[in-house]
Design a protein that fits this description.
1 helix, Methylamine Dehydrogenase, Chain H, four-stranded antiparallel β-sheet, mainly beta, single chain, 37% strand
Amino acid sequence: MINPANVNYCYAYTTAGYQYSTDGCHTFRSTGFAALGPATYVQPGGTNIVAVDPRNPSTVYAASQSGVARSADWGATMSPTDWPMQQATAVAVDPSDSRIIYVGTNVKLYRTQDAGGTWSELALNGAAGYPTTIAINPTDPQVVLVGLSQSAAKGGGILRSTNRGTSFVRVNTGLSTRNAICCGVDVLSVRFDVSGVVAAATSTGVFVSADLGDRWQDVTANSVSRYFTDVAWNEGALYASTYGSGVLRASVSLSSESRASSRSTTSARPSSTPYQR
């Protein structure tokens, strides 16, 4: 992850533990914080194991077996938060209010509205699996999407809240009904672009929605890989990382109607050009 407010700071979380860079991802170093060191965290989630506070970008969070760690110096020094959860799988900070933070674990989803002073457990509407990725709509932070470790075919998929997590509904129309053949986690990344269009990287392909998940369009296109680990938007292009087959890029076009009405049931579906490596 690259810190959006200062691109000199980058973060990597591998089997060697959490590491940070101060020179634009050229070199990395460990913090020396044992809870984020090698062999201390078996990552059972998606891509949101590191989070930057959008309003205070020197504040960085990292998930671990023992809970969530926090840094106040751009990720260079980490310390425990003592928040009441373990086996954290995802962390997300509300872009409009830094006091509102979501934490997924290997069993539950939690929300604080007072920067960690108190926590509420959020009901996941009976869906299968646990939270692996959390996305907050930058144009309307009331809208929160949560990807689950189990696919839509297994009773999981993607959940949507329109009231900052107080209640969720499943939004799986258009997602694959195939079962993945590998790797344990089915929804690995859900990410909004700046206009509120959302993309999902899953164990069965890449999907895009222009209506907050009411309908998903498969844009996997010509990709040989079907297991995708992350997605990222940049100036109209959608990038997707695969499980062992490189990074791909495609242009995803959306009609003006679908952009103007993100909840419309008649808006045009997104389409993509063939992927390029």
